[in-house]
Amino acid sequence: MPSPSDIHLTEERIRAVVSGTQGFSSKLRGATRRHAKFSITPEMLASAAASGTNLLGALSGQFDAAAGSGAGRHVSDSTRLIELLAHLADGTIDEAIAREEGRAAHTPPFGGPEMQAQMRAAGERRIAELRAIPQSEVDAVLACLDEIEKLYPREVERIRFRHDPEVRERRLGAAAALRTGDPTRPPLTGGRVRRVAEVLRQLLPLPQKAQVMFENTDVLTGKPAVELLGASVVKKLAKLGEDPEAYARDAWWTRHIAMLLSRGESVDEKLAELQQLVDPTAWLNPYDAPARSKRRAGAWAAAMSGPYEILRRITPDEEDAVRRLLPELMPVFEEARH
User: Fold this and answer.
1) Which 8-state DSSP code applies to residue 96?
2) How far, in Å, CA of 37 to CA of 34, rounded?
3) S-S: 244 plus which of 33, 234, 317, 334, CB 3.0-4.6 Å?
4) Where are the domains of the chain?
5) Where are the alpha helices (DSSP H) in 230-289?
6) What is the separation, in whole angstroms, between the first and last Cα of the chain?
7) Could you read off the pLDDT of 141-159 as tens digits, one per residue?
């Protein structure tokens, strides 16, 4: 089994992953079709946990036997690269550590003491793994982005967006230019957003049918109010002097914007991300059979087109109106969900 330091990637090993992916992926798919079996023993698990090494390193010999010399190293390094890309796509390693520490500090109080202990241990293990990533490995990944982009265009674009100020500014500007507004409805104002929250408080508790609208912000807009909220809520809205159709529409849009902002994102940031994801090439999987990868990439890109078009219909003024009232909105929206 490799030593702990052996799992850390260098520029040379990253470039070897890129150059070897097509050949090794084909060989490993062939081995799978031949029903090659890769076994993990309890001893291997214990040894990997004790040494802090990549478990796949223990399977190196089995991969080599199935797909040729070097396959084990390729699988291990590819997996490590994917993990690093996922961390860096969301920011710096320090930010990833801070997110894990935040999760650990707010562990949901469910399950017994044993489950709680397991959750804490898992969180501590993730934090330890993040702290063990050396800056030299991060630098190696950032230095090889042009090469890595051939395999992982989606992740590389996210990393550039997070780590390169010029790329970030350019993409946010392009996203802002895409926001056309929505001529099919009146724009949300601060007063209307506050009224949405005030009326919702008077409707609580909502029947289960109406809760769905506040649980799933991706539910299609444009449906009749009675379908989104239920007949009983529609009657209450009429008694409160609200047009049920207009209220359902405005509540949907307010909730959609509020949920995005509550995650610390902006409309421009999310739109910049989706602008890339509506391109099928962003979804190509280098480890899948080419024809199937292309077919799946097209399906994923098509699925992104709906959220992309929705965000284009949100004006900056509407976003600002919801942001200013977010502390008032989120508690009532959370209550509506339950």
Assistant:
1) H
2) 9
3) 234
4) 4-163, 177-337
5) 231-239, 244-262, 267-277
6) 50
7) 999 999 999 999 999 999 9
